C-alpha cells in the first residue's frame, strides 16, 4: 500500500470508528451510562440517506420522517456538494458499510485469488447493477407514503451499528450477514447491487466536475486499471469514466494501479495529464 | 487540472467537518429531534399540532411542551410513578411497562398516548383499535366530559383495569390503592390533581383562594400548577393537607 492510498484507508477507519463510537454512546446514553463529551447521536441522525428520503415529507408538511433530524439533511447536502465535484467519494472514502465490505473482500482475495470479484459473467452483471435504482425508487416512494423509515428494518448499515442495541432489526442483521458473506466473493456486493444511496450518488458520475480520465496516448494497454477496479469498470476501454458505479476510490489511477505516470488520473479536461493539486 | 488522492482525502475531510462546523455555528446541526409534530392540514383544526404524530421517542415533558397536557396528568393517566423525573419518561417505555398485557392481546403504548392526548384536548384523533387505555386514563377522559358517544364507546371498550395487569412491570406502575387504604392515601403529593382535592372535600373556592387563581383544568396536578405559576408547591401542599377531610 503506498502513501497516497493509505490516506484513504485512514479516512475509512476514522469514519468507521467515529460512527461506531457515537452510536454505541447513543445506546449507553439511553441507559443513563453515556459518555458526556462524546456525541450520542443515533445512526439515523448520521445518515445522509435519511435526509434524501425525508425530502418529500419536509416539503409537503415541514417535518422530518420519524428518527430523521436536521443533521441528516446537512449531511445530505454535504454529500451532494462532494458528488458534484468528485462523484460518489462518500462511497469510496467515507461510508463505513462500504469500508467493511472492502476489508472482508481482502480475505476473499486471498482465498479466491484472481477469481475473486469475477464470479458473475459481465453480460448478466451489467444488468444486475441497475437493481439498486429500483430499490431507490421503492424506498423513496414507501417513505413518502408511510412517513416511516421503512428501509430501517432491512438496512445493513443500521444493523451494523445496532449490533449491541435493542434497536437491532432481524431483517437488517440477515441482510448484513449476506452482504459480508458475499463480500468474500465479490467486491462491495451491497454497493453494486442493492444500495439505494449508492445508486443516487452514482448518477453524479455522469456530470461530476472531476472525472477519471485515461490518456490513450501514454497508455500501454496493460489492463491493470481495469483489473484493480473494485466495481469492475473497464477503465482501459474508454478515455473518460462516466459509469454510474464508479466510487472515486482512485485505485485505477497512476498513483496506484496504472504503472505509467500521469496516464490515469482524476482530472478536469482531457487526459490523465495536467497539473496536480 | 488533476486532483491527487492526498488532496482528495483532504477535501473530503474539510468539506464534511467544515460543513458540520458551519451548520453548528448557525445552530442547524441537530442530531436529536426538536419534537415538532405534524399539524392538521385541513379542517377546523388546521395549523394545530396533531396528536396522531406523537412518537415513541416523545417524553411526557415533550407532550406537555407541545400539547400542554401536564406531564403529571399523563403520569397519573398511565399509572407511571416511582420515577424521579416524570418529564423525561419516554412514551415508548409504556410498551415494556405493560408488556404483560400482550398475552391478553392488548397493548398500551405510544398509540394509547396519542388517543389519550387527542381526546383530552378534544382534537380529532384516530381511535386505534389496537391500543388500550389504563383505567385512570379513561376516568380522566370521562370526567372531562368532552367525549362524543362514539369516543365514549371506544373508551369503555378499550379500558384496562390496573389490577389485572400481569407481569413484573408493576414496579413503575402506580396501581390504585385497595379500598381499606383509601382514607390514608388522602395526602397531597406530586400526582394529586385538583379534581382529587375537590373529591376529598376541599371546596373549589378554598382551593382557588389558596392557589391565588382559577383552577385551569380539573385534571391538572397541583404541582404542575405551582411550577407554571412560580408558587412553592411544598407550602401549598401543607395548607391543602390540613383542609382535607380525613
Ligand atoms: S454504495 Fe452504499 S454502501 Fe456502498 S459505499 Fe456507497 S453508500 Fe456505502
Ligand atoms: S474506475 Fe477507478 S476510481 Fe472508479 S471505482 Fe474503478 S478503480 Fe475506483
How would you characterize this protein structure?
The complex is a heterodimer of chains A (277) and B (246). In chain A, 51% of the residues lie in helices and 3% in strands. Chain A has 277 residues and is mostly helical. Chain A folds into 2 domains: 3-204, no CATH class; 211-277, 2-Layer Sandwich (Alpha-Beta Plaits). A two-stranded antiparallel ribbon of chain A has the order 1-2. In chain A, helix 1 crosses helix 5 (96-112), helix 2 (48-61) crosses helix 3 (70-86) and helix 7 (131-146) packs across helix 11. The radius of gyration of chain A is 19 Å and the shape is globular. Chain B is an all-alpha fold and 246 residues long. Chain B folds into 3 domains: 1-31; 51-164, no CATH class; 183-243, no CATH class. Helices cover 43% and strands 2% of the residues of chain B. Chain B has 11 helices and 3 strands. Chain B has helices spanning 5-25, 60-67, 71-77, 93-97, 110-121, 135-144, 149-157, 194-199, 204-211, 222-229, 233-243, and strands at residues 2-3, 133-134, 159-160. Chain B has a two-stranded parallel ribbon with strand order 2-3. In chain B, helix 2 (60-67) packs across helix 3. The A-B interface holds A 3-5, 7-8, 10-11, 39, 41-42, 45-46, 61, 63-64, 66-67, 69-71, 74-75, 77-78, 81-82, 85-86, 89, 93-94, 210, 248, 250, 253, 255-256, 262, 265-269, 272-277 and B 1-9, 11-13, 15-16, 19-20, 23, 28-33, 36-39, 41, 53, 55, 57. The structure holds iron/sulfur cluster (2 copies). One iron/sulfur cluster binds at residues 212, 229-231, 233, 235, 241, 246-252 of chain A.
